Amino acid sequence: MSDVFDVVILGGGSGGYACALRASQLGLKVALVEKDKLGGTCLHRGCIPTKALLHAGEVAHTVKHSAEFGINSTLTGVDMTAVNTYKDGVVGRLYKGLQGLVKHRGVTYIEGAGKLVAADTVEVNGQQIKGKHVVLATGSYSRTLPGLEIDGEKIITSEHALNLTSVPTKSIILGGGVIGVEFAGAWNSLGSDVTIIEGLSRLIPADDEDMSKGLEKAFRRLGIKFNVGVRFKSVEKTATGVKVILEDGKEFDADILLVAVGRGPSSRGMGYEEVGVAYAGEHIAVDQFCRTNLPNVFAVGDLIPGPQLAHVGFQEGILVAEKIAGLNPRPIDYAGVPRVTYCDPEVASMGLTEVQAAEKYGKDNIATFKYDLAGNGKTQILKSAGLIKLIREKNGPVVGIHMVGARAGEMIAEAQLIYNWEAMPEDVAPLLHAHPTVSEAMGEAHLALAGKPLHVHD
Ligand SMILES: Cc1cc2nc3c(=O)[nH]c(=O)nc-3n(C[C@H](O)[C@H](O)[C@H](O)COP(=O)(O)OP(=O)(O)OC[C@H]3O[C@@H](n4cnc5c(N)ncnc54)[C@H](O)[C@@H]3O)c2cc1C
Fold first, then answer.
1. Conformation bin of residue 326: beta by default, left when phi > 0, alpha when psi is -120 to 50
2. Closest CA to 23 of 118, 132, 140
3. Taking the CB of residue 95, how many other CB atoms lie within 10 A of it?
4. Over 90: is that where the pLDDT of 335 sits?
5. Among 72, 113, 260, 414, whose CB has the most other CB atoms within 10 angstroms?
6. Tens digits of residue pLDDT in 200-246
7. Which fold has domain 4-142+264-334?
8. Cα 416 → chain centroid
9. Contact 10, 112 (CB under 8 A)
10. Strand 121-124 to strand 114-118: parallel, antiparallel, or no bridges (unpaired)?
11. Whose alpha carbon is nearest atom 19 of ligand 1?
12. Can you give the residue ranges of the Pyridine nucleotide-disulphide oxidoreductase dimerisation domain (predicted)?
C-alpha cells in the first residue's frame, strides 16, 4: 500500500475501533488492522456475551423462583446450545452493525496480524502500511498461574467458558474478581454447584469492603460457595474432572476449573520492543494523552496501565483521535470511571472507597452513610437486597458512591454525574427521584448525608 495514512491503528477492539471512528469523523485518513474480528474482546469474548449469559441465568432464576411471586412454573431444563444461539445472535447483530459503521466512516480495514516495524510503519500480510501516527491497541489475554496449564476442556479461561455446550454440574472458579463472580452468578443460576477460590480475604477485593460483604451475603443465600484468604497451590486432573488443592491443604473437586485470575496486556511479539517503545512493567507506558515515548506512537485500552474496561478503551481511543487531529481534548480522570460487576445482585461504584478516601482526606475529614435497600420499595418488589454507601469529604463533595443491589448497574449513570460534577449531598438532596424506583434510594442516601433523612431512622 503506497498511501500514507494519518493514523494506522493496530487492533480493532474497543480502544482501536473507537479511535478509528472518531479519527475518520474528524477527517483523518485511517487504516485499522485486525487479525481476528472487529470488536475485539468486549464484543466477542467479554462484555456482551457474558452479559447475555448472565441474562439467560436470570431468566432461569426467575422461572425457578416464580412461585415466590405467586406464579407457578417449572424449569424443565437449560439448553446450552439454545443459550449460545441467543448469545451469539446478540453478538452477531452488534458485529454486523459495527462492520457497517466502520465501512460507512471510510476507514480502510485490513485483515491480518500486524507488526510494528518502525515508528511510522505497521507490517501486515507482507505489506508495509505507513502512518503519520500509529496507535497500538492490541488488548489483553487471560492470565494463568505458574504450573496451571489451560487445556481448554477441564481447565479453562473465560474464552472457553463462553462456549460450553452443557452446564458443568460442579465447577470451581479460581479468582473472585469481576470476571470470576460474574461467571459464578451465571453458572449458579443455570444450575451448577459453584465454588469460588479467592486468595485475598474477600470477594471483589478491589471494591469497597461493604460491597464485598453485601455480595458475599447474597451469594451465600444463592448457594454460591466461596473460600477466601487462602491461595491456590495446585490442580490435578482426575477421571471425572479436576481436584484443586490450596496452600492450607484443603481440596476441592469439580468437573471443571475456570481460571479467572486477571488479564495481562498483549504487548509482546509485535515489534514494540524492537522499535523502542517504552514499557511500564508488561504494559506500554503512556502520558496523559496516551502518547508513548515515541512522539507519533500512541497506545490505548488494556495495553496500557489503568482500568481494563471497554468504556475506558472507547474514551482513550477518542482522546487519541482528537489529539492527533489537533483538538484540545481533556485528559481522562481515571477516578471518574464507572465500574460495574453484573452478577445478581449487581455491584457498581464511582470514585474512592472508604479506605482510599480516608487516606486522601484523613479519617476525620470524611463522612459516610449507608442506606439499606431493605427500605426501598422497588427492591422489596424485586425480592432483592443490598445497600448504597456514600462517602463525602466533610463539608465537601461526594467522593465515593458504592452500590450493591438489583439494578445498581443502571444507577451508575446518576452516580457518575454526581461524582464527576463534584456535587455536594446538599445539591442532590432536593432533586426528585421517581417513586417507586431503585434509584430513589440514591435520593434517600443523599438526603440522609445532607442531614435530612426521610425513610431512615435517625
Ligand atoms: C469475560 C470478560 C468480560 C468483560 N466484561 C466487561 C464489561 O462488562 N464491561 C467492560 O467495560 N469491560 C469488560 N471487559 C473488558 C473489556 O472487554 C476490555 O477492557 C476491552 O475489550 C479492551 O479493549 P482493547 O481495545 O484494549 O482490547 P481488545 O478488545 O482485546 O482488542 C484488541 C484487538 O487487537 C487485536 N490484535 C491483537 N494483536 C494484533 C495484531 N498483532 N495484529 C492485529 N490485530 C491484533 C485482537 O484480535 C483484538 O481484536 C470484559 C473482559 C472479559 C475478558
1. left
2. 132
3. 17
4. no
5. 260
6. 999 999 999 999 999 999 999 999 999 999 999 999 999 999 999 99
7. FAD/NAD(P)-binding domain (3.50.50)
8. 16
9. no
10. antiparallel
11. 309
12. 337-445
* Single-letter residue type at 163: N
**Residue 408 φ/ψ, nearest 5 degrees:** -60, -35
Homologous superfamily assigned to 155-261 = FAD/NAD(P)-binding domain (3.50.50.60)
Q: What is the pLDDT of residues 99-140, one digit of tens each?
A: 999 999 999 999 999 999 999 999 999 999 999 999 999 999
Cα dihedral 252, 255, 259, 260 sign = negative
CATH top class, domain 345-449: alpha beta
Residues 444, 367: Cα–Cα separation, whole Å: 16
Ligand 1 site-directed mutation target among 41, 50, 91, 342, most atoms within 8 Å of CB: 41
Per the prediction, the chain carries an average pLDDT of 97
Q: List pLDDT tens digits, range 129-172.
A: 999 999 999 999 999 998 899 999 999 999 999 999 999 999 99
Q: In this predicted model, what pLDDT tens digit does every residue of 53-104 receive, in sequence order?
A: 999 999 999 999 999 999 999 999 999 999 999 999 999 999 999 999 999 9
> Does the fold of domain 345-449 match that of domain 155-261?
no
Find where cell 452468578 sits.
185
Ligand 1 neighbours by CB, cut-off 6 Å: 10-16, 33-36, 40-42, 45-47, 50, 113-114, 137-140, 158, 179, 266, 270, 301-303, 308-311, 313, 342
Lookup: cell for 78: 437449560
User: What DSSP letter does each residue of 302-364 carry, written as one string?
Assistant: GGSSS---HHHHHHHHHHHHHHHTT--PPPP-GGG--EEE-SSSEEEEEE--HHHHHHHH-GG
Which member of 435, 446, 455, 457 is catalytic? 435
pLDDT band, very low/low/confident/very high, at 275 (cuts 50, 70, 90): very high
